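Ticket #4471: structure export looks truncated?
Reporter: QA, pipeline team
Priority: medium

Steps to reproduce: submit the single chain below to the structure queue and open the exported record.
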Amino acid sequence: MRQSSVIARRVAAASVGLVVAAGAVACGPKDNDGKGAGGDSTPHKGGTLTVLNSEPQQDFDPARLYTSGGGNVPSLVFRTLTTRNRENGAAGAKVVPDLATDTGRPNKDATVWTYTLKKGLTFEDGTPITSADIKYGIERSFAPELSGGAPYLRDWLVGAADYQGPYKDKKGLDAIGTPDSRTVVFHLNKPEGEFPYLATQTQFTPVPKAKDTGTKYEEHPVSSGPYKVVSNENDGERLILERNPHWSAATDAERKAYPDRIDVRSGLDSSVINQRLSASQGADAAAVTTDTNLGPAELAKVTGDSELASRVGTGHFGYTNYLAFNPTVKPFNDVRVRQAISYAIDRSSVVNAAGGSSLAEPATTFLPDQKSFGYTPYDLFPAGKTGNPDKAGALLKQAGYPGGLTITLTHSNSKDFETSPEIATAVQDALKKAGITVRLQGLEENDYKDRIHSVRTEPGLFLAHWGADWPSGGPFLAPIFDGRQIVKDGANFNTGLLNEKSVNDEIDAINKLTDLDAAARRWGALDRKIGEQALVVPLFHPVYKRLYGKDVKNIVISDWTGVLDISQVAVK
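Actual output as written to the record:
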């Protein structure tokens, strides 16, 4: 996932000091007759859910959205071949069928994947959803004017590298076959055992060719989900969704669709969002946020109020914040220097700078602490809670720096805590104890991104972070450590410029596996192997704490997204 991703995504959902019950998820909706108040925990059908978000819901077109598992708001309108399992915690990190009858049927080497659509699928106007609609929806995502979605299809599909979409190439993609109205067949360049995860992306949303209006499609995309767009103001600043009368729960086991109406208001200040959810007055009593975290000061206030504390959802997402080394820049070309910094780091101070233990968890592995990623515990350079300056000093002496050394740490000046001056200062203080003087180089956000993502300008040491497009080690390790993904004339994410045949070969070998549990174990072993080279210093994994209104029920937070799933929410 792009490093700038918010989100948004290990443990079952819980409130601060209170586990949020979600046992009623499986119950069918009932008419909202007012019986939801006064302790009735059964989800009821009806009412209006308000979503208060800071990030605008722009480009509401399935071709342009960059989402995991169909996203959150988008997945109410756009169904895909597969989707995420809508359950709490680790169970929610599994991929399950959506429009398709299963998660896909691979050939022997996972280079061909076949899907069969369920019977009875229709668009919001009642017309049937066919395999041709799936194929067309994917093809239009290649159009330059509809760019913005996940890039995998261009790399994975046979003959797709130079395809420019159906507006310019009427022939379409031969790599996507539609032998009949319910069958879709994908032909890939190489084995991809994780294709079922990719099929959760919104590019796999069916789009009826006759209703495609190009760049204006986002104003009224044709719904395949439980809700349809009735209003889209100022490119997603306010989005009004109402029930799609042709959606059938019989074909959709994942979305509960309790509210009658969903009012999405975006572009709001984060402090305003938390104030409104805290007060929970009027329509805000039935409101949630999917992108606005509680800050340290806000969390302290909430924790001291039992009523507010009972309205906080806790989420974990596959995301790691780390120090990145460029081993072509001295002195980081010496592995002993990189190891010394790894030993010297004080994760307690870093966690405090990130908002404290409620908002950040210390990390010693690059892969997040989730089974689906293949998490394998290891700590190759034990620093304890506060660092090991003696071990670091001994390594520096071996490397020829008995009197210590001076280095530069590049970071962003953004308020985003992940790469903030506060994190950089915590690192600076820790390394000072080991005889390492750190000069801080703060850059404005755009300059920071441009510099760290260019092979020509990448600094020797900088703060970085990475999140996965789906809960697996593949999209976590490959972009950062696969040498074939080094981009010399564009945005590069292989910050350590690692191009080791054994690593590349193991990535290929794991990609052939369609047994995702077996693949996860291999990703975990590869994480440890790469970790021995000390190309990064894992710092922490973020934790998401988010308020919701007092009239909101049925809280489900999966390890796939780490945020409240509005497809499950009911309101009084």
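Status: closed, not a bug. The export was complete when the record was re-opened. Leaving a note from the reviewer for reference: Residues 428 and 438 are 5 Å apart (CA to CA).
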